[in-house]
Amino acid sequence: MVLGDGFTIDYQAVANRRDAVVKRLRNGVVSLLRKNKVEFIEGEAHLVNAHTVSISTRSDNLSADSIVIATGSKAAKIQIQGLIYPGTN
Asked: Sheet harboring 45-49: ordered strands across?
């Protein structure tokens, strides 16, 4: 909680910090996957059936006993009266 008057928020610094944390966590997960010999493939994917996945970065479908699709995340802009998002003017 921030209390007081006359403070400003450096949105660019907040965004830079967020990006650095996300990058560090993502790299850690990728490292753990590779260490445990889990194949990591980037791209958009959808399940064809219970054991097959189609990935946008590949021309063929992949089949396996177990498939993990990490959905990622996308920031949501919450509409708050008077709030101006950086870079939106």
From this structure: 45-49, 52-55, 62-63
